[in-house]
Amino acid sequence: AQTVTQSQPEMSVQEAETVTLSCTYDTSESNYYLFWYKQPPSRQMILVIRQEAYKQQNATENRFSVNFQKAAKSFSLKISDSQLGDTAMYFCAFRDYKLSFGAGTTVTVRA
Amino acid sequence: ETGVTQSPTHLIKTRGQQVTLRCSSQSGHNTVSWYQQALGQGPQFIFQYYREEENGRGNFPPRFSGLQFPNYSSELNVNALELDDSALYLCASGTWLATDTQYFGPGTRLTVL
Fold first, then answer.
1. Cβ contact (<8 Å) for A43 and B55?
2. Pairing label, strands B10-13, B19-24
3. Helix (H, G, I), strand (E, B), or coil: what is residue A54?
4. For B28-47, what is the mean pLDDT?
């Protein structure tokens, strides 16, 4: 079974600054997919970014980027130029046929 | 806006009752998965349906069951409700590809008293 660990329950960042969320996972598979989802207070789970394990290049989506270290089984998310709308819970997830989620990190962006 | 809808938004039941939650998948998606999210935790996989058959299940008892219909709508049924079943229930739809992203609905908040 795959396990996903997010070791930071809460993070606080000043608007316009950068914050990095950590995620580690455990799997014996060599080809898989990793995701970061955002869940604001509205509860809607929104895809932030996706990484295919066979790709060495780190994924980037606008202000969001990942640092994928396959050997270390690490998948961190960097949010640059933080905005108030980034305030949410962020989940790291591993996909085989289903998604296995970490416990989440609550990110609060301060004005 | 993902195109995945769920109903109802909120629901209150008493212990021992049965509940049905509904999900309408995005057009073109042939898989639907259900997740249970307890307060302050990450979602836990309940099961997945593909072409109207269950093809994967998490660590949930048989009183959690589901259906998928030809029009890609889906139901989650929970019998003999327990207090610990209080949670946010999320459905997610996608296609049968490991590469494919699953798109989530807004969830149904179930409270069991």
1. no
2. unpaired
3. coil
4. 93
Q: What single letter denotes the amino acid at residue A50?
A: R
CA gap B36, B63 in Å, rounded: 14
Does B94 lie at the interface with A, CB-CB under 8 angstroms?
A: no
Distance from C-alpha of A58 to C-alpha of A55, rounded to nearest angstrom: 8
The confidence band for A90, taking pLDDT boundaries of 50, 70 and 90, is very high
Amino acid identity, position A46: I
All residues of chain A having their beta carbon less than 8 Å from the beta carbon of residue B38 are none
The 3 state secondary structure assigned to A2-21 is: CEEECCCCEEEEECCCCEEE
Asked whether residue B1 carries a pLDDT value surpassing 60, the answer given is: no
pLDDT of residue B2: 60
The mean of the pLDDT values for chain A is 93
The first and second tokens of residue B38, run together, are: 């307890």
pLDDT band, very low/low/confident/very high, at B13 (cuts 50, 70, 90): very high
Length of chain B: 113
